[in-house]
Specification:
186 residues, seven-stranded antiparallel beta sheet, 5 helices, alpha+beta, Thiol Ester Dehydrase, Chain A, homotetramer
Chain lengths: 186, 186, 186, 186
C-alpha cells in the first residue's frame, strides 16, 4: 500500500494546477477506505437489519462512497434509514452550491437502506430508479444535512421508499422516491 | 494496516480504522481542487457556451465535485454535454457496485450543462429535478462510462434534458431526465 | 345542441360493435358536461381558494373530464385537495384493471388543485410533470378510491405537491408527485 | 338547459345540472364498450404480439378506456406502440386545456403495449411507474395527437419504455418513461 499521495492521472487535473502559478493555491484532501468486497460478502448470510447493525457498530467498514464524499454517519431503524453530511467546498458544482449528485447519493443511500432493513437473510434488493426534486440550494452555510427515508410499500417483488433532505432546523431541501426490485432465492 | 494519518476527521472514521488491526489495509487517495467561487463568479458575464468553453480549455478550473469523484473529463456541444468517468473502488456502495449517486452526479452534470450550453449571458438555470433509471450495475470491470445528455425542449421558463449512461461498447446502464428552471434577468 | 346520442365516428368503434352479432352485447353510457371556457374565464379574478369553493358549492360546473371519467366528487382545503371515484368497467385497461391513466387523472387533479388552493388572484400555475408509482391494481372490487394531495413546498417560481391514492380502508394503491410552475403577473 | 335524463347518477352531478336554469346547455355524449374480461382472458395463451394483432384487426375489442376517452386508434410494432386521439371538449380540465390525465392515459398505453409486444406467451407485465413531463398545453386547436413509445431496455425482470406525444406536425407536447415488471411463469 502506497503512502505516497496517489498521482492523479486524469487529463489535465494535477498538471493544470501545478502549471498555473497565479491561480489560487489548490485545496487538497486525503481520505481512506476499505476493501468493499468484504462488505458485500458479509451480506450473504445476514438479514438487512443484521448487516446494517454490523455496519453501524463498526464490525463492518462503511462503503467506500461514504468516505469519498465524507459522510458524517448513518442511523438505521426498522424500515428507515438516515445519512448525514456536512457540506464542504469539495462537494460543489460550478454554480457554487453542493452538486445535486451529492444530494442524490445521500438520498439513494437512505432509500436503499430503509428497504434493506426489512429484508430477511437471502433476500436481496436493487434500486430500479431514483426521482429527485431539488427545492433549495445547499451550501456550506446550510450546515449538516440529513437524508431520512422510510418504506412506503413493501411487496413481494418490489418496494417503494421515500426520502427527505433537511437541515438541522428541519428545513426541506430535496425529496426523493425510489423503487427497488426485491429478489428472493430461486 | 496503514498508519498513515488520515486527513479525514469525521466522527468515527479514522478511529475505526486504527482500532482494528486485522482489517484489510485501507486504501488511500489524495486529490486537489480549486476555489469554486471563482468559477461561479466567472459565469456572470458569459454565455453558457463561453463558460463551458473556458472550462474545457482550462481557462477555468473544473468544479470541485469533478475532482472529488475523479471524473475523466467532459465535452460540450450546442445543446449537448458528455461527462466521462472510470469506475474505481472508491465509488462503490455496500453491494459491491458503483453507487447510484455517482451515476446521478455524471448524469445531472450532463443534463445541466446541455441546458447551460444554450443560454445567453445573463440567463441562468437551476435543476428542478432528476429522474434516474438504473438498468445494469456498473463495476470496475465496466471500464470508462460516459453520460451524454441533450436538450429535448427549451422554453422561456423551463427546459428538459435527457441523458444516457453507456460504456465504451455503447451498452446502456442508466437513463436520466431533468427539468430545469430558466431564469431571465428581471 | 343535439339531443341525439353523438355518433361515434372514430375508426372501427361503433361500427365494429354493430357488425359482430355473436359478441357480448356492448355496454353503453351517456354523460353530460358544460362549456369549460366559462370555468376558465371565471378563474381570472378569483383566488384559487375562491375558485375551488365556487366549484365545490356548484356555482361553477365541474371540469368536463370529471364527467367523462365519472368522478364522484372533490373536497378542497388550504393546501390540500381530494378527488373520489368509484371504479367501473369503462375505466378498464386490457389487463382487466383500472387503467393507470385514470389513476393519473385523479392524482394530477389532486396535486394541481392542492397548489391552486394556495394561490392569490392573478397568480396562475401549470403542471410541469407528474411521477406516478403504481403499487397495487385497482378493480371494481376495490370500491371507491380517493386521491388526496398536499403541498410539500411552495416557492416563488415553483411548487411541489404529493398525492396518495387509497381505498375506503386506507390501503395504498398509488402515489404521485408533481412539480408546478407558478406564474406571477408581469 | 337540457332536460335529457343524465345516466350519470354520481352524487351531486345530475342534481347540480337540473338546479341551475341559467347555465349553458350541457353537452352530451354516448359511448359503448365491451366486456373487458374477455380481452383479459384472451391474453392467457397468446404472445403480446398476437394479442396486439388480434386487437388491431378487430378480432378482440379494444379495452373500455379507449372508448371512454374516444381514442382514434392504435398501431403496434415489434417493441413499439402508438395511440392516437383527437382532443375534444370532454377531455378538458378547469384550465381550458386537455387534462394531463388524458395525456397520461395515451402515454401509459403506448409504453405498456410497446413492452407487451416483445413478451412471449405466458410472460406478463405490469407498469410500476409512469413519469410524465408536460411541455406545452394541448387544446382542441392542436388537432390529432399521437403518443408513440419504444422499449429502451428489456431485461429478465424489468423493462423500460419511453414515449413522446406529438401533433401532426411533429411538435412535442409531453414525454413519458415507464418501468414495467416482467413476470415469468413460476
Amino acid at each position: 500500500m502506497t503512502t505516497v499521495p496517489e498521482a492523479d492521472t486524469t487529463a489535465g487535473s494535477a498538471a493544470d494546477v501545478a502549471a498555473d502559478p497565479v491561480r489560487e493555491p489548490a485545496r487538497q484532501r486525503t481520505f481512506a477506505w476499505e476493501d468493499p468486497s468484504a462488505i458485500a460478502a458479509a451480506g450473504a448470510g445476514r438479514s438487512g437489519a443484521e448487516m446494517l447493525a454490523a455496519w453501524q457498530t463498526g464490525t463492518l467498514p462503511p462503503p467506500p462512497i461514504m468516505r469519498t464524499l465524507d459522510f458524517d454517519g448513518a442511523t438505521f431503524g426498522e424500515g428507515s434509514a438516515a445519512f448525514r453530511l456536512t457540506p464542504r467546498e469539495f462537494h460543489y458544482n460550478p454554480l457554487g452550491t453542493v452538486h445535486g449528485g451529492v444530494l442524490a447519493t445521500l438520498l439513494d443511500s437512505a432509500c436503499g437502506c430503509a428497504v434493506h432493513s426489512l429484508l430477511p437473510a437471502g433476500v436481496f434488493y436493487t434500486s430500479l430508479d431514483l426521482t429527485l426534486k431539488f427545492l433549495r440550494p445547499v451550501t456550506i452555510q446550510t450546515g449538516q444535512i440529513t437524508a431520512e427515508a422510510g418504506v412506503t410499500h413493501l411487496g413481494r417483488r418490489t418496494a417503494l421508499a421515500e426520502g427527505r433532505l433537511t437541515d438541522a432546523a428541519g428545513r426541506l431541501y430535496a425529496t426523493a422516491i425510489s423503487s427497488c426490485l426485491v429478489m428472493h432465492p430461486a
